[in-house]
Structures are given as C-alpha cells and as structure tokens.
Amino acid sequence: MIRTALPHSSHPPDRSVRFARYAAPDEPPVVDELSDEAGVLIDTLFMRVADCSSVPAIAAREIIENLVHADFKEACISVLDGGATVRVSDGGPGISDKDRALEVGFSTATAEHRTIVRGVGSGLPVSVGAMRAVGGSLEIDDNLDTGTVVTLRAPAGTTVPIGQEMSAHARTLLALLVELGPSDLESLAGELGIPRALASRELIFLEHRGYVDRAVDGTRDITDAGTTLLTTLF
Q1: Strand order of the sheet with strand 14-21?
Q2: DSSP code string of 158-177
Q3: Which has the least CB within 10 A, 42, 90, 108, 203?
Q4: pTM of the model
C-alpha cells in the first residue's frame, strides 16, 4: 500500500470564545461564539469589550490576552452591570499562586505564547494598577471545575480620562507617527523594539479610537484627533 502524507497547513488553528452581554440581571444574555486565529481573536474580543464596557481598556486587554495560557479552553467573556463589570473565565490549568501572579515578572508564558502576547509577567499587575486608578477592583477566583475567573469591576458611571486607557507603547506609537510620518508595521515595531504582534495590537486599538488611520497598503498615519490627543500626553 502506498501512503500519501497530507499537506501540512501553515495556518494556526482557530480558537473560540463565548462573548455574553447582559442587558439586565433578570434577563438572559446575548451570546456570540467568536472563532479565529489566536491573535486576531484577542483583537476582536478586546474591541467588543471596549465598545460596551467602562472598564479601563488596558485592564481588559491584559486579562483577555491571558486566555492564551489556558489555550482558550472553555473561555467566556461576560459584560455585566451596564458595562461596569467584565468577567473573563476559562477551563485551563488555573493559577495556583494568585498572590505571586500579581507580582511583576512572574509568568508561565511559553515560547509559543510569546509569539501572541508579551508573556513577561506584567499583565495582571498592569490590570490591577489600571483598575485602582479608577477606584475599581480586580478579583481572581478558581472556576467551578478547573480554570480561572478574573473579574474587573469599575464604579458605576466610570469614565476613563482620555489617554489613561492607553498603554505607554500606544503613546509612543503616536509620537513616532508624528516624527516619521506614514509608516508600516515592521518599521514601527522595530523603532519600539517590540514584537510585530504587540505593535499590531496597539495600532488596532488606536485605529479603533480614531487616533490612527490605515492606508490600503497597510501603512499607518496619525489623525487630527491623534495629534490633538498627543499634545495632552507628553
């Protein structure tokens, strides 16, 4: 018998996450099942949360990125309390030492994880700092069977000051675009000395907020709104 090997796909496998938005405590949520390659899925989920929640964008993004540690297993993101609460749960291995997980530098990120997110042990500490800045909180609990549940709670009616929702990398990208003019992703990532995936995620956020435009050829340029914002950041 002659066996023919099937061609190996170079495309990474898709992951899926449930996204649930609760309009009221006594009403069933609107639930979507979102599937895509890991990096794209993180971007999509982050934008969904940013559109309907008052939780600081930086805090939400870091927690969503942490789903890579659970390989997105049984992952679900819930937006509650009119957007003031965001809960991210998974069925992964869980976090055995929750106190240490909140310290900068502790990380279980593998080499594969680092191709998607930074994986330098700063995600949870950054989220905690962002939540405290608005008078909110971050809670880490074990899921019912296995995995982790992270809950971000912002005070009702919270409005995050313009610019505070942005990371240091995002601010620097705006400054670079003023200095360099229209630039491609590779050049911007190189100037910052960060992975392309991280630079891409920051730029997508800036585009979503209207601070950066992307041309047909993929180059980015700062918008008038971005230039105005930049004058208040430095």
Answers
A1: 30-37, 14-21, 76-80, 85-89, 148-153, 137-142
A2: --PPTTTTS-HHHHHHHHHH
A3: 108
A4: 0.73
